[in-house]
């Protein structure tokens, strides 16, 4: 009886997922750090040209799920991921997948801005150069300029491209990191609390940018700020103790969530 209902539930889930324009789909994703299980059979899709916010109390598994999407958990020694994750229908754990290429397609922006100790120009040019995206210096110049433009930083740095990236303000450094991610033409951008080290003005600038980037990319953002999730995302997924509690339109999640835990978290009753 259980087996039958499980099969029916899975069929219904797959049918629902097939009807939606997903860029990435995680099915039954579990993550273990050694013996400790951090994620429990998470089923969550990332829609095309949509910002998906991952919310939930500290330690609930948001960053762990995010890192599954470009196999960053591979870099953590005792981490083990099970389940299936696809990018445009292709299994990202398939042996034929080149992880370096995957991470160019699914880029990441971290909590703390982490520019390389190199010039502003080199920070952006590095990725396109190693991925062979530029055929000439003029090509590379063009990619650097357009990436800085898309990250909303070009006007502030165009006259100082040879200065150190680390000399920029925190907010500018984070936009430089976004330019660096964008420079390799990703399809998905993962952001792990990208504004937590920024002041309100720099945060507003990055949020504006996320809004603009959605036209071209699918974005997944981990945030502790309910206001930020409500401002920047169209879909919100709530995690609790390693489980996906629910996922829905952001407006619905913030006005009429299905699960009491979401309601309580949003109202600041825990977390
Ligand atoms: N490298 C690691 N080794 C062992 N355990 C880990 C590791 N990274 C995360 N964990 C554990 O996995 C669980 C989920 O952590 P994760 O960082 O994904 O949560 P989170 O929701 O992103 O938390 P926060 O909001 O505090 O960043 C936590 O219990 C955490 O302690």
From TrEMBL:
Domain ABC transporter residue range list: 24-266
CDD domains assigned: ABC_PstB_phosphate_transporter
Top-level taxonomic group: Bacteria
GO terms assigned for molecular function: ATP binding
Keywords, sorted A to Z: ATP-binding, Nucleotide-binding, Phosphate transport, Transport
Protein family membership: Belongs to the ABC transporter superfamily.
The protein's name in its UniProt record: Phosphate ABC transporter ATP-binding protein
Organism placement in taxonomy: Bacteria, Pseudomonadati, Pseudomonadota, Alphaproteobacteria, Hyphomicrobiales
